[in-house]
Write a structure and sequence with these properties.
TIM Barrel, globular
Length: 332
């Protein structure tokens, strides 16, 4: 059976919740029910950003929408605060009701990113974040690794089915001039720490183009060879347009050489051109996405990963109308 995994970036759909009474049932209707009514088999839930969270963690870094300057952020901040004030926060509810509906839920952390630059100075472990690429990052920081480990420990306690590490969100991860060997070593050290943290699946999202991935310290073939990962998601680099015609053979070969079972879920990114202006006309059609899905499975993929479709459209729904059609027609 193939896996069909949807990435929720932890942001857009919460706008829809802000328009409701924000009950437990409202959270189910917005965040879980659309999954259960589709062909999707799993949700990769992003806790939002590394510095601001849409669920409770030991650091108490709840997203409050302050400092970003948009009404939408303040709406989402109120949603996060409301559910964090209940016995079960948003991620707790998604895990519980996702499991009730037969949906696996993974915990996703953007490994270096924040929305509000004012959050950076007081982050634990002297973490060096990116505020939309205006602040340089350095993934060689041991304190940064320790902070990320604590976030994963907290979301593992919520009963997620695995942890998802996004090495592609808001790249680059290193200051200019960092030697490639140091980049690769720092990511390898981090992956070894993650593997010791849990026996649950470890999922990594990386660039399908080797030269672009290595520039960010990514060496998924070595990670697979050491048995450090359970799933690899090759995709286009840092939101670059998706042509829907690239290959992923080297990942299949790497997975076969792994000492532990390892799956490959190639990513489908919804646009074939730029995306910054939110022009939905730039999205691939449902028919193109479905065709690509079937091609990927035919080419040996264990599943397909759909990244960040929820960023498109104006009504804050988890799925837009065309996406509802797409995700209900995936299976061969």
């Amino acid at each position: 059976m193939s896996d069909y995994v949807f990435n929720n970036d932890g942001f857009g759909p919460l706008v829809e919740l802000a328009k409701t009474g924000m009950t437990e049932q409202d959270a189910i209707d917005v965040l879980v029910r659309p999954l259960a009514e589709s062909d999707l088999t799993a949700l990769d839930w992003c806790i939002m950003t590394t510095a601001e969270h849409n669920c409770r963690t030991r650091h108490g870094r709840a997203f409050d929408g302050i400092g970003v300057g948009r009404d939408i952020d303040q709406m989402i901040g109120r949603v996060v605060a409301h559910y964090n004030g209940q016995d079960e926060d948003l991620l707790d509810l998604v895990v519980k009701h996702g499991h009730d509906q037969g949906i696996e839920v993974y915990g996703n952390v953007r490994l270096s990113h924040c929305l509000n630059a004012e959050r950076v100075p007081d982050c634990p472990g002297v973490v060096n974040f990116c505020h939309y690429n205006s602040i340089k990052k350095d993934f060689r920081s041991w304190a940064f690794h320790a902070y990320l480990i604590e976030l994963f420990e907290d979301i593992l306690e919520k009963g997620i089915d695995g942890i998802s590490l996004d090495f592609e969100r808001k790249a680059p991860f290193f200051p200019p001039g960092t030697p490639e060997e140091e980049k690769l070593d720092s990511c390898l050290w981090f992956m070894r720490k993650i593997r010791k943290l849990t026996d649950r699946p470890v999922i990594v999202r990386v660039a399908h183009e080797e030269e672009k991935g290595r520039a960010q310290g990514q060496d998924p073939i070595t990670w697979m060879k050491e048995g450090l990962v359970d799933v690899v998601i090759p995709g286009t680099h840092n939101h670059e347009p998706d042509s829907l015609d690239w290959t992923f053979d080297r990942f299949l070969t790497g997975a076969k050489a792994s000492p532990r079972p390892c799956k490959v879920w190639p990513q489908v990114w919804p646009t074939g051109t730029g995306w910054e202006d939110g022009d939905t006309a730039k999205k691939h059609t449902s028919e193109a996405v479905i065709l690509r899905t079937r091609e990927l499975i035919d080419q040996g993929a264990d599943g397909v990963y759909y990244f960040n479709f929820c960023c498109y459209g104006k009504d804050g729904q988890l799925f837009q109308q065309d996406d509802r059609y797409t995700f209900s027609n995936l299976k061969l």
